[in-house]
Design brief:
It is a single chain. Helices cover 65% and strands 2% of the residues. Helix 1 packs antiparallel against helix 6 and helix 3 packs antiparallel against helix 6. It starts with 23 loop residues before the first helix and ends with a helix.
């Protein structure tokens, strides 16, 4: 071998899961697909809880699955979950404030469990009035953010997601797509923004955790060259 030439190093094995994918565009697509299916699964489970409690009512002609849910609900929730999960780490990078609080899968799974518990409380726990229920769910949702997030960007995005999702839901109910029993906040229930806020924080945590593997690939690339 001529002087000055260096032997090209062999391929280096990357981290687990999707960190083995070196293309950022493919990595982004894989994370989006994973987030989509997580959102679909959570939508099926949580919507089943709401329907069993008769919190939401769909017209008979749109009941199209074994979970007694309108067919369009899971895909819409999956798409929203993918957007939210990809948006959180993107905002973190844009602000130059990488989120490092409780960055492990055990914490993410606990966050998901608390989110499901908040939804379960909204459907199963009986309160004297909707104000007590709304205040309780608001406290639980903020507690979820404080326990698993604690970032200003996470709180701001959660509030924005809750506002936008509530407006969209109001429009859907207004146009007769489905309805809520005993609405007390225009056409929906007053505690609904709390659920959307907690859902945004939860999907944001999942998205941030998945994005950590992409960061590992970027960090390892200079060493492979």
């Amino acid at each position: 071998m001529a002087e000055g030439e260096t032997e090209s190093p062999g391929p280096k094995k990357c981290g687990p899961y999707i960190s083995s994918v070196t293309s950022q565009s493919v990595n982004l697509m894989i994370r989006g697909v994973v987030l989509f299916f997580i959102g679909v699964f959570l939508a099926l489970v949580l919507n089943l809880l709401q329907i069993q409690r008769n919190v939401t009512l769909f017209p008979p002609d749109v009941i199209a699955s074994i979970f007694s849910s309108a067919w369009w609900v899971p895909p819409c929730c999956g798409t929203a979950s993918a957007v939210i999960g990809l948006l959180y780490p993107c905002i973190d990078r844009h602000l130059g404030e990488p989120h490092k609080f409780k960055r492990e899968w055990s914490s993410v799974m606990r966050c998901v469990a608390v989110f499901v518990g908040i939804n379960h409380a909204s459907a199963k726990v009986d309160f004297d009035n909707n104000i007590q229920l709304s205040l309780t769910l608001a406290a639980l949702s903020i507690g979820l953010w404080w326990t698993f997030d604690r970032s200003r960007s996470g709180f701001g995005l959660g509030v924005g997601i809750a506002f936008l999702a509530t407006v969209v839901t109001q429009l859907l109910v207004y146009n007769g797509v489905y309805q809520y029993t005993s609405p007390d906040f225009l056409y929906v229930r007053s505690w609904l923004p709390c659920i959307f806020f907690a859902g945004g924080i939860t999907m944001g945590n999942i998205g941030r955790q998945l994005a950590m593997y992409e960061c590992k690939v970027v960090a390892e690339k200079p060493h492979q060259e």
